[in-house]
Amino acid sequence: MLNKIYDWVDERLDITPIWRDIADHEVPEHVNPAHHFSAFVYCFGGLTFFVTVIQILSGMFLTMYYVPDIENAWESVYYLQNEVAFGEIVRGMHHWGASLVIVMMFLHTLRVFFTGSYKKPRELNWMVGVLIFAVMLGLGFTGYLLPWDMKALFATKVGIEIAASVPLLGGAIKTLLAGDEHIIGAQTLTRFFAIHVFFLPAALFALLAAHFIMIRRQGISGPL
Amino acid sequence: MSNNKVSRRQFLSYTLTGVGGFMAAGMLMPMVRFAVDPVLQKSAGGDFVLTDKKVADITEVPERVDFTFEQVDAWYKSDVTNTAWVYKEGDEIIALSPVCKHLGCTVNWEGDPAHKNQFFCPCHAGRYEKTGKNVPKTPPLGPLDQYEVRVNDGLLEIGKAIPNTLV
């Protein structure tokens, strides 16, 4: 049945070459854990992407109940976690996944560093990776405020004070992040929500696309 | 190995698809169930709301009765005021919902001077008879809903809306 549907589409659009370009590529022996078990360190990049996909999916579902408003944010999080079926699981996936992304990404960075994979001709991909690292930390920072509980509020106060300590521009950065010179409140929450669900994910998708196109163009770096 | 009908490649492809599908389902099932929860949740509703309308004051002419109750909308609680058109038919108290069955506007008793003894919807000139029966050749396709009613210490209590039982 599925084969017939595939053949029907393929006959008209010739999709097999596209599919082959995406899925069919060489996996050298030195990165295949089936040959050398220690090659599992080459999995961290893929695992980072896998957890990122979970983050995107669970985040999309969470916005079905979440409201970025200081009166209702905490109540809506409490409701979706305790009153909605599987709310604890879906929020749990997003909560723990957020930490896991950072861990996996850090391990991936270490692997690239210690195998020297950042060297010529892959310097550009390392730079894009560093930008992805920054975007991920930004996602973590903005997402932390959204439940609007005490921990979130005070963590954000501290984070914004750190941003405000930048010489000369500090005050402007603080106002830009918080939406107000003095208050961490209504405008901060909506800003962080917009940054968390629209701006940073858009930047992340573009950077991930560049990251993956470059690795396909250049191939995986050789053995040590 | 002549009786081996499944090739190694097929076996690998089936196992990987199976395990992968199982993992994807384990990931997606909680999220989908989470999303469809409003459809599956039992609606509590159906509590009677006490109005300040004395049953003795109800006449045979439909009269507007407002009643207010606390509505729990997920994490948001608020007081909501609904309206009923209330009249007596013999000894029986009838309370009709004012929500037009065409597109949900609010109907008025004798809202159109040209049509006495009828409910009138201003949006598209839909009309209903006193029982709530929709007048043919006007937009509504069904009769007005009815409210469950109860008397409590001489005052009218209004319950949930049910399909019209008079027509």
Automatic annotation (TrEMBL), chain A:
Domain annotation Cytochrome b/b6 N-terminal region profile: ranges: 5-224
Residue stretches spanning the membrane: 39-67, 96-114, 126-146, 158-177, 189-214
Protein name per its UniProtKB record: Menaquinol:cytochrome c reductase cytochrome b subunit
Stated role: Component of the menaquinol:cytochrome c reductase complex.
Record's subcellular location: Cell membrane
Statement: the UniProt record of this protein carries the keyword Transport: yes
Requisite cofactors: heme b; heme c
Molecular function terms, GO-annotated: electron transfer activity; metal ion binding; oxidoreductase activity
A GO term from the CC aspect: plasma membrane
Keywords for the protein's UniProt record, in alphabetical order: Cell membrane, Electron transport, Heme, Iron, Membrane, Metal-binding, Transmembrane, Transmembrane helix, Transport
Subunit structure: The main subunits of the menaquinol:cytochrome c complex are a Rieske-type iron-sulfur protein (QcrA), a cytochrome b (QcrB) and a cytochrome c (QcrC).
From TrEMBL, chain B:
Sorted UniProt keywords: 2Fe-2S, Disulfide bond, Electron transport, Iron, Iron-sulfur, Membrane, Metal-binding, Oxidoreductase, Transmembrane, Transmembrane helix, Transport
PROSITE patterns, per database record: RIESKE, TAT
Domain Rieske: 89-158
Secretion signal, residue range per the UniProt entry: none
Annotated GO MF terms: 2 iron, 2 sulfur cluster binding; metal ion binding; monooxygenase activity; oxidoreductase activity, acting on paired donors, with incorporation or reduction of molecular oxygen
Record bears the keyword Kinase: no
Gene3D superfamilies linked to this entry: Rieske [2Fe-2S] iron-sulphur domain
Residues spanning the membrane: 12-32
Annotated PANTHER family: CYTOCHROME B-C1 COMPLEX SUBUNIT RIESKE, MITOCHONDRIAL
Family to which this protein belongs: Belongs to the Rieske iron-sulfur protein family.
Subunit structure, interactors included: The main subunits of the menaquinol:cytochrome c complex are a Rieske-type iron-sulfur protein (QcrA), a cytochrome b (QcrB) and a cytochrome c (QcrC).
Name this protein carries in UniProt: Menaquinol:cytochrome c reductase iron-sulfur subunit
Organism lineage string: Bacteria, Bacillati, Bacillota, Bacilli, Bacillales
